[in-house]
Structures are given as C-alpha cells and as structure tokens.
Design goal:
mainly alpha, Amino acid/polyamine transporter I, 19 helices, 2 strands, binds phenylalanine, SNS_sf, transport, Sodium-dependent transporter, transmembrane helix, membrane
Length: 454
C-alpha cells in the first residue's frame, strides 16, 4: 500500500514554501557580510549572475526529479530505476543534517538577540563572544528553535509547512520593507548605498568569484535535495519553470533588499563593512542603540524577529529532507519520524553549539592550510556548504542530462507547460545542465578541495 505522503494544496503554497527555504540566514546574515568582504557591488553582480546562469537550471532539475518521482531525495533516484545513483540522495541527506545542525545554532542566536533587543539590552553587541559562549542560554534557544521546526514539519506538508510559509513569508516581506524605509532616513544612507550599488570591478579576485558562487548555491537551497523533496509534493499540472523563476526572483530579491537595509544601517555609524560573520550580531545592536530606547527596541526587535522568521522557513525545509526520507523509505509515521530526526540533528549540533567560546578545543578544531584555524562550526560549514553543495549540484546536473537523459527530463519539464516547448528558456536550461553546470561546479569543487586542504 502506498504511504500517505501529502502534498502542497496550491501552486502558490509551493512557491512560498520553496522561497521560504531559500530565503534565510543566507540572505540576511551571510549575504551582507560576504558583500562587505567581497568589495561591495562587484560581489553583488557576480552573485546575481551565478543565481540566474548557474543555479536556476539546477533548481529546475531538482524540482523536475521530485515531481516526476514523488519521492524523497534518496527514493527519487531509486524510483527512476537508478539505484546506484541514490548516493547523490545520501550525500544530500548528509549535507542537510550537517547544515541544520549548525544553522539551528545561528538561528538560536537570532532568537536570543530578538529577546535582548525587546528587553532593551543593546550592549549585547559588545558581548557577542560572551553570548555565544553561554551554552546554556543558546542551548535553550536552540531547543526552542528545533522544537518549533519539528512541530511544523510533524503537521505535514499542507497543514504544517505550507501553512507556516503562507503566514511567515508575507510577514517577512512587510518587515523588510518597513526596515528599508526606516534605514533610508538615516544619516549617511547614501554612502551605504554607494558602496552597495556602484561596482568596483578591480575588487574581483578568484576568491570573490568562488564565494559568490558558493553563496548563490547555499542561498537557493540547492545541491542537497531540498527542492527534490519539495518538488515531490507539487501538483503534476503545475508549471515547473515559472515556479522556479519566481523562487529564484524572491530569493535574490530578498538578498538584494537586505543590503538596502543593512548598509545604510552600518554606514550611519561609520562602521567598517568587512566585519565578517559578526557584522549583524556585533555591529547592528550599536546602531539600534543610537536610535534611542523606544525606537531602538522597535527597530532592533523587528530586525531580529525578521532574521528568526527567515531562518525558520529554512530550518523547516532542512528538517523535511531527512523526515520525508524516513517516511517514504522506512515507512515511519511522519510525526514520529520528525521528532526522531530532530533529536538526532540537535545532538549532531552540540559540538557546534559549544565551539563558539564554550569549549576551547572545539573553538580551534581544525587547522587547514588554506583557511587557517577553524572552529568546529565553521569547519562543518566548510564541508557541507562549500564542498557538498556544489558537488551535489554537479552530480544532479550530470545525472539529469546523462543518466536520466535529456528526453525524459524535457518530457517532465514541458508537462503542464505548453509554452516552454522549443523556447529559448528550455534550450538554455538544457545547455546549462549539459555543459556549464558540470564544468563550473566540478571546477569549484576541485578548487575548494585544493584550496582548503592542500
Ligand atoms: N537557503 C537557506 C538560506 O539562505 C539555507 C539552506 C540551505 C536551506 C540548504 C535549505 C537547504 O539561509
């Protein structure tokens, strides 16, 4: 007997959920600091190019594989008859578990900061190190975050994931707009925008290209089967390419908008833009403090609530990948599967939780030739985001075109989309998946390995 898998009830529900997966800490926390370190607008141009040229075709391929097979990231390859290729799915599961294990810790920081802002404790920015080292508080916030995520996922696709996305995504959008409007009124906002929008192409180095690509991949939730999984709940008649376009545009749109609020904020205080991972957690509380106690609480609270919401729709998708694997392949009831997986991932995340000041050995976990000393959390991020995701994307492109075969892929793609047949967009997606994606993604994978480990 077939298991009851559930599915999205509307196309809009799917688009919002997938956009929710894409829009996350990657857009609001990581994107601005990567822009700051990558020299500003030149990075933005590269990032946008990568999203549309390289990532969009992979996004389409993932959704097509999911919709065709109606299976999880591992089962999809088996359902197509390629059992050996199911290793791509297992790689994806591993990436998902690893990413969620540390992502949940950063999400817990965001939630914790929301509470600090609302209670008017702006000094927290100067005590970021003490905050992350306090593993009891951060641990409690991360239990809360993982628990909330598991609660939503356990309620199923339409009753949990879709419903949450339908509430959170529009709210998130409104919050971003309010914050941008406010940020524009700050002194020096124009300087911030200049840095953000006027490209200086002399800033582009190999390293910048490579981090723009990694960022594009992470930001679109690609290369680990999250979109195969969500795609498996999509109605057969829905249009894949136009859904994928909307998902890409929303993700890119929110990242770009995030810059419009963060750079005016940062420049209003004349603070350096290359603050790295702490840009948001260290710099912004000081900016909010300068707004005065009432306005600071409102704007600061709003900002970290926004960050928590964005993270939440992403943790939901990260948890759904292993959950749907357990439901489909091991016939475990959804709610039970969800809580078991959440517990395991939480446990996997404990060293990451402890690696930001609580346990010294975990803070200096690995010393790699290319990157120097890394804490455990950054190390796991390097392996999962920078290595596994591009590798997964490479394998998915190769699988789609050369194993599953172009004809079958295109048949699935054009089902429910009569206009696509013979269009330039279809030709482009095929060309990119056949040549551009395998070449560039394969190259990035190799460069990352050589760069980091040798
Ligand atoms: N796209 C998410 C973000 O930008 C992160 C993510 C990666 C989510 C992979 C799911 C899968 O924060």
């Amino acid at each position: 007997m077939a298991v009851q898998r559930g599915g999205f009830s509307t196309r809009m529900g799917f688009i919002l959920a997938a956009a929710g997966s894409a829009v996350g800490l990657g857009n609001i926390w990581k994107f601005p600091f990567e822009v700051g370190q990558g020299g500003g607008a030149a990075f933005v141009v590269l990032y946008l190019t990568c999203c549309f040229v390289l990532c969009f075709p992979v996004l389409v391929a993932e959704i097509a594989i999911g919709r065709k097979t109606r299976r999880n990231a591992v089962g999809a390859f088996k359902a197509l008859g390629y059992h050996k290729w199911a290793f791509i799915g297992y790689l994806g599961l591993t990436s998902g578990v690893l990413i969620l294990s540390f992502y949940n810790v950063v999400a817990a920081w965001a939630l914790g900061y929301f509470v600090e802002m609302v209670t008017g404790n702006f000094g927290i920015g100067k005590m970021f190190g003490d905050f992350t080292a306090d593993y009891i508080s951060v641990g409690l916030y991360s239990i809360l975050f993982m628990g909330g995520t598991a609660f939503v996922v356990s309620r199923g696709v339409s009753g949990g994931i879709e419903r949450a996305a339908k509430i959170l995504m529009p709210t998130l959008f409104i919050m971003v707009l309010c914050l941008i409007i406010y940020a524009m009124t700050l002194p020096n906002a124009v300087e911030g925008l200049k840095f953000y929008l006027v490209p200086d192409f002399s800033q582009i180095t190999g390293q910048v290209v490579y981090s723009a690509l990694g960022q594009a991949f992470f930001s679109l939730s690609l290369g680990m089967g999250a979109l195969i999984t969500y795609g498996s709940y999509v109605n057969r008649e829905d249009n894949i390419v136009s859904s994928a376009s909307l998902i890409t545009l929303t993700d890119v749109g929110v990242a770009v908008l995030a810059g419009f609020m963060i750079f005016p904020f940062v420049f209003s205080q004349g603070i350096e833009t290359d603050g790295g991972a702490g840009l948001i957690f260290i710099t912004l509380p000081g900016v909010f403090e300068s707004l005065g106690s009432t306005l600071g609480v409102v704007i600061g609270g709003l900002f970290f609530l926004l960050l928590s919401f964005a993270a939440f729709t992403s943790t939901i998708s990260l948890l759904e990948v292993p959950t749907s694997y357990m439901v489909d392949e091991h016939k475990i009831e959804r709610s039970k599967a969800t809580w078991i997986v959440a517990l395991i991932i939480f446990a996997v995340g404990i060293p990451s939780l402890l690696s930001n000041g609580a346990v010294e050995a975990l803070g200096k976990f690995a010393s790699l030739p290319g990157t120097g000393t890394l804490d455990f959390m950054t190390f796991v991020g390097l392996i999962a985001n920078d290595l596994f995701l591009p590798l997964g994307g490479f394998l998915i492109a190769v699988f789609t075109i050369y194993v599953w075969k172009k004809e079958n892929f295109n048949e699935e793609l054009t089902h429910g989309d009569s206009h696509l047949k013979g269009s330039w967009l279809q030709s482009y997606v095929n060309f990119a998946l056949s040549y551009i994606c395998p070449l560039l993604l394969g190259l990035i994978f190799l460069v990352t390995v050589l760069d980091s480990f040798f």
